[in-house]
Amino acid sequence: MKLVFAIVKDSDASALLDAFAERHIGATRLASTGGFLREGNTTFLIGVEDHRVQEVISVITKCCPRRIEAAPQFTPGTGQMPFGGLPVQVEAGGAIVFVTTVESFIRV
Known about the structure:
The structure is a single chain. With 108 residues, this protein is of the alpha+beta class. The chain has helices at 10-22, 53-63, and strands at 2-9, 28-33, 40-48, 66-71, 88-93, 95-101.
């Protein structure tokens, strides 16, 4: 058994949860915040059998595309935007996925 952690943009979370439900993949949804863009994210915890890990990753890839977005510039060390600072274009979206082995799974 594996535990998949998937960190996705909030804007992709509902579609991803629906796609998991269609495939009978159980997932726990947690609110989280990213450090770079300082925007809300959603972290999913997905416990699956080993043979379904690639299916889970494929669903995440389909529902969470990478895209270009405008992000504010911050002054180093202050965490504040400089006066008149223009946003920069950054690649965003997609997902960060961790897959770990589960030693024990107990449903009470």
